[in-house]
Every structure is written in C-alpha cells, then in structure tokens.
Amino acid sequence: MSLGPETSLHDESTPTADAAQERDTSEKAIAGRSLKQIAWRRLKKDRVAVGGGIVILVLIAIAILAPLLIKLLGHPFDEYHNDKIDPTLSLPLGKLGGISKDFLLGVEPVNGRDIFSRIVYGAQTTLTVAFLSAFLSTILGVLFGMSAGFLGGWVDSVISRIMDFLLAFPQLLFSIALVSVLPQSMLGFNTRWSRTIVLIVVIGFFGWPYIGRIVRGQTLSLREREFVEASRSLGARSPRILFREMLPNLAAPILVYTTLIIPTNILTEAALSFLGVGIPPPYPSWGGMLSDALQFYRYDPMFMIIPGAMIFITVLAFNLFGDGLRDALDPKAR
C-alpha cells in the first residue's frame, strides 16, 4: 500500500526537475553580452591586433626589467669596450657590427658600447615619454573638450580658438627652442630624468588639442541625448552629468585615440633626440642612436638598422593594436 504514494510523488517531481533544467538552459541560451564582452571577443578574433598587443607587452616588460636584463645578458650602457674595436678603422671587430654571444646586438663604433644595453635602456626612456605624454594629452583633452562641448557659448569659443592656435603652432621648432634653453638638471633629478620630464610636458601639452577636438564633437552630440535631459530634469548638476553620465559614453573614442597617439609621441621623442635636444648623452635613446649612426652607416649599417628597426616595430605594433581596438569598440561593426 505504501508503494503507490511514493511512486506518485516520484512521478510528480520528475517533470518539475526537467522543467527547471529546460528553463536554465533557455536562460543561458538567451543570455546577453555586455559591450565589454562583445569588444573583447572582437579583439581576440583580430589576430593582427593581438599580435601588436603581444609585441607591446613584450616591450613594456623589457623596459621594466631593463636593469635585470642588462645584468644577465649585457653590459653597462656607458661602458667602453675598446678591445672590440679595430684600432685602425674604429669599427667593430667581426661581422654584423660585432654581434657575438657576449654582445647580442654588437657594439658601437669608436667606443665599443654594448648596443643591446643601449636599446633596452632606450626602450625604457621612449616608452616612459610616450605613455606619460599620451596620458597628459588625454587628461587635458578630455577636460577641455568636454567643457567646450557641454558648456558651449563663450567657453566653447575660447577653448576652440586655443586649440586652433596650438594645432597651427610649429610644435617641433618650439620644442627645440624650449628644450635648448632649459637646464640639464632640475627638480632634484639627474640629467636623464630631468630631460624626460621636460619632453613629457612639451609633447603632452602640444598633443591635447587633437583629442580635445574629438571629445568636443562627441560631447556636442551626447548633450542632446535623452539620458542627459533626464538627468537635468532630476536636478543633476553639471559635474555629475559630465563625469557620471557622459564620460562613460566617451570612454571608447578616448581609449582608441590614446592608443593611436602613443606612436606619434614615440616618433616625436625620437625626432627630438635625433636633432640633439632630446635625451642627452651618454644616456641612450633610439633617436640619439640613429643620430650617432649617420657617419657610420656606410661602414657599419647594423648600427643604424637596429635602432631604426626598434622604432619601426614599436610604432607599427601600437598602430595595429589601436586599429584593432577601434574596430572592436565600433558598435556598427559586425
């Protein structure tokens, strides 16, 4: 007699479990993805952008671990190795600029300094200037661009004219003149980091109008949207609307343009160092190494090829990654 109720109870519970399982499966099937998840999936599928990102991460790791890498694989960047130089021609002994197991990228003509060590420390300097100047440009561009686009009126007119003036200003010539008259050491830093700070400020200051115009245009479009009007009707103040409502919607173009402005900053720093107003000797920089190689490229082409290749690879990696990031964050892209 007791088997009937138990059997009946078991039969009733089975469909309930099956229905719950079907409901969970259907919920997983229709689960939506956030914009971040969609962008991440798109970026992962772009092999070119992923390759550029890997190269960037490797370069950042090299810059951070520069002292350790030099200790393990190289020599001090300002140490002379005259025994590796032909006393008659002042050129490196051996083939390909003196490349060997002790000097992975060869040595410099005349003095025999380790090119590998100078490339590694040059990466540290170049990436520091590029990243921090891009960060400074982004901060200034976002603040002034959002203010011009949101407030409008005379504020927009004044900021727009300032941006037009800076965009028309001869940045390179002004940078050369400014850096030339500043002292070698200041603020308690040594010569290398004093000049690095100057380059960050100069490059970052002249770079903000580019991102400022983009942010201003996006802000002019966003300030007429419904969610902004709703915030105003609820009594939200301008700072809250700017930084809590509008800034998250500007994150994608800001991020994309920041990644694309970094290679421009790398080339600007290399150009200033090439012209002799960047990182002062004996501290290494890729542009400075190219400048030193001018008089030797016919006899020791590796001295010019190596720093030139590093600049090319770094700029290319940032451009490829920036293009892939732009496509991944584009809501209209498939």
TrEMBL record:
<keyword id="KW-1003">Cell membrane</keyword>
<feature type="transmembrane region" description="Helical">
    <location>
        <begin position="165"/>
        <end position="187"/>
    </location>
</feature>
<feature type="transmembrane region" description="Helical">
    <location>
        <begin position="299"/>
        <end position="322"/>
    </location>
</feature>
<dbReference type="InterPro" id="IPR000515">
    <property type="entry name" value="MetI-like"/>
</dbReference>
<feature type="transmembrane region" description="Helical">
    <location>
        <begin position="193"/>
        <end position="211"/>
    </location>
</feature>
<feature type="transmembrane region" description="Helical">
    <location>
        <begin position="48"/>
        <end position="70"/>
    </location>
</feature>
<feature type="domain" description="ABC transmembrane type-1">
    <location>
        <begin position="123"/>
        <end position="322"/>
    </location>
</feature>
<dbReference type="InterPro" id="IPR035906">
    <property type="entry name" value="MetI-like_sf"/>
</dbReference>
<feature type="transmembrane region" description="Helical">
    <location>
        <begin position="129"/>
        <end position="153"/>
    </location>
</feature>
<dbReference type="Pfam" id="PF00528">
    <property type="entry name" value="BPD_transp_1"/>
</dbReference>
<dbReference type="Pfam" id="PF12911">
    <property type="entry name" value="OppC_N"/>
</dbReference>
<keyword id="KW-0812">Transmembrane</keyword>
<protein>
    <submittedName>
        <fullName>Peptide ABC transporter permease</fullName>
    </submittedName>
</protein>
<feature type="transmembrane region" description="Helical">
    <location>
        <begin position="254"/>
        <end position="279"/>
    </location>
</feature>
<keyword id="KW-0813">Transport</keyword>
<dbReference type="InterPro" id="IPR025966">
    <property type="entry name" value="OppC_N"/>
</dbReference>
<comment type="similarity">
    <text>Belongs to the binding-protein-dependent transport system permease family.</text>
</comment>
<keyword id="KW-1133">Transmembrane helix</keyword>
<feature type="region of interest" description="Disordered">
    <location>
        <begin position="1"/>
        <end position="27"/>
    </location>
</feature>
<dbReference type="InterPro" id="IPR050366">
    <property type="entry name" value="BP-dependent_transpt_permease"/>
</dbReference>
<keyword id="KW-0472">Membrane</keyword>
